[in-house]
Amino acid sequence: MTTPRELDGANAGGQFVRTALALSVRTNEPVRLENVRGDRPTPGLRHQHLAVLQTLAEVCDADVSGAELGAETVAFDPGLEGHGGLEGGEYAVDIGTAGSATLLCNALLPLATVLESPLSVTVTGGTDVAWSPPLDYLRYVKLPLVRRFGLEAACEVDRRGFYPEGGGEVTLRLEPSALEPIEIVERGALEALHLYSTESESLADRDVAHRQAEGALERLDSDAPELATRRETAVDSPSPGSAIVIRIDHGTAVAGVSALGERGKPAERVGEEAADAANRFLAGAAPVDRHMADQLLGFLALAGGRLRIPAVTDHVETRCELLEAFGAEIDLEDDGETTLASVSSPLNGVP
């Protein structure tokens, strides 16, 4: 029996849990997580982290202990047999709250690189909720970017889920994939901006999606509004809510920013917040936004290559430490304005 890799989450949150479990499957190494979400006010597994653990365990037929709410120690052994990799299939998971469906989908994406057959996972939960990427960021920013490097993934939407009810439903479909080295170093010229402004049908009579888009367009700097297209959508959802995502196309890659509606916050202000984030990105030099920088590091460790990121945030630092614990060698070179992350020896797949 292989000795589990011991990992300490005392100074980390949910990202640590999701990344560690995904890497465990990707490398077929058992792990033991101690002090799960140790730096959070309420440590241990919450609904959305437990859903990730249970989903990965079901897909892999893994041996697991600690799969319960509040657990601060988790043992996970994917137990993939031989050299064959991972069988696909169709699965469904209900997070049970407005816990983030997009974060669960993100945790599953690396599995495409060890799949033998297609995998489909239908997730019920929050699609546009705080502390996680909105659904349109996943659909229109992240997935198009990772598909450029060979990851075959698509996301279908049946229903949106806003806080507090959640109740959204999305299906992530993964195909067996072989990643190519990531090379995103310089930012190209700004080509286009795409505004995806969404409201629940219960807010349609207030023109929330339209007002969000108008607020964003009026706030964007320079000539950016002239390059913008917009899509305003009213969607079915158990809870009232809204979101806006701005995708920024600049030749060498895409970036994205977003904002969520809140009770009492004018829709125009929501759009302005997204535009402010877009303006900050456009004023910098990195080709990806700070959230994408963090999320792409795992793929960089698996595929190798170079990625220029805006800064070494706490999330970036935590993810790098975890990737290095699995054997990745990530070099970070700071030029004073951006940081170049590079990996010359990618992590191995299933042994």
Automatic annotation (TrEMBL):
Q: Where in the cell is it found?
A: Cytoplasm
Tell me the GO BP annotations in alphabetical order.
RNA processing
Binding residue positions for ATP: 291-295
Signal peptide boundaries: none
Q: Which InterPro entries match?
A: RNA3'-term_phos_cycl_insert (IPR013791), RNA3'_phos_cyclase_dom (IPR023797), RNA3'_phos_cyclase_dom_sf (IPR037136), RNA3'_term_phos_cyc (IPR000228), RNA3'_term_phos_cyc_type_1 (IPR017770), RNA3'_term_phos_cycl-like_CS (IPR020719), RNA3'P_cycl/enolpyr_Trfase_a/b (IPR013792), RPTC_insert (IPR036553)
The record ties this protein, via SUPFAM superfamilies, to: EPT/RTPC-like, RNA 3'-terminal phosphate cyclase, RPTC, insert domain
Q: Which GO terms describe its cellular component?
A: cytoplasm
Keyword line: ATP-binding, Cytoplasm, Ligase, Nucleotide-binding
Enzymatic reactions: a 3'-end 3'-phospho-ribonucleotide-RNA + ATP = a 3'-end 2',3'-cyclophospho-ribonucleotide-RNA + AMP + diphosphate
Q: Where is the RNA 3'-terminal phosphate cyclase insert domain?
A: 185-282
Annotated ranges, domain RNA 3'-terminal phosphate cyclase: 12-326
Which PROSITE patterns does the entry mention?
RTC (PS01287)
Q: Where is the active site?
A: 315
Alphabetized GO MF terms: ATP binding; RNA-3'-phosphate cyclase activity
> EC number(s) per UniProt?
6.5.1.4
Pfam families in the record = RTC (PF01137), RTC_insert (PF05189)
Per its database record, what is this protein's job? Catalyzes the conversion of 3'-phosphate to a 2',3'-cyclic phosphodiester at the end of RNA. The mechanism of action of the enzyme occurs in 3 steps: (A) adenylation of the enzyme by ATP; (B) transfer of adenylate to an RNA-N3'P to produce RNA-N3'PP5'A; (C) and attack of the adjacent 2'-hydroxyl on the 3'-phosphorus in the diester linkage to produce the cyclic end product. The biological role of this enzyme is unknown but it is likely to function in some aspects of cellular RNA processing.
Protein family according to the UniProt entry: Belongs to the RNA 3'-terminal cyclase family. Type 1 subfamily.
Q: Which HAMAP family match?
A: RTC
- Name of the protein this chain belongs to: RNA 3'-terminal phosphate cyclase
- The species this protein belongs to is Natrinema thermotolerans
